[in-house]
User: What shape does this take?
Amino acid sequence: GAANVYENHEGQREQRNKAHFLELAGALSIFDFCNEIENHNVENGRAVGGSQVKEFGIVRDTNRVTFKDLDPSNTNLLTPNLTRFRFFSEYLIRGLPRAKNVARWTKNSRLSRKKTLLDKAFFESADYENFIAAFTNYFDEWIHEMDSNKPSFSPFKKIVSTGNSLDILNTGKYDSKDGFKYLDIENSNIIDSIQPVNSFTQFFKLFGNSTKNVLGKYNLLKV
Assistant: This one.
């Protein structure tokens, strides 16, 4: 069949359906609606000239959807953001354990012009575990559930080691380099330029820049 069949549990605790690509497609309608407002095609919450009916389509009839199967506007919207966060979440699981208190960005020294707040205490804090680690685990679960559903959304390969961490996209691009090592180097190079207002701000600004720089260097943010 083209789709999975679920048991229906109305309002019960058992109601827990796996994440589905159609939910992601539906969420993209928010961006389309906002564009309509920006282009003055919507007034007071209504479409100018009457109601509009729109459909979401893919460029190939496939039960295993990747970024390249989407309309170019959706590809350009999803690819860089989801790829960076996928790389980031995989790094926290596989790359961070070997970097903590070793890589320069995780420790302070007399050579540091500014202090990093991303030290051992930060990564062992309840805030990190309850907010950052927990959220990235939910993200990974979401990606895996969409991959296993029908039709599946499978833009990413299964990363199994640090050695092939740049082999991330299901688009035929292959690079077996250790991207996590490059991420540590980039973090250490730019940590001094990230103002440590607080640990969370420094953390997300750091990885927001470093993931973009590393993946962009290897042309992994475009399909």
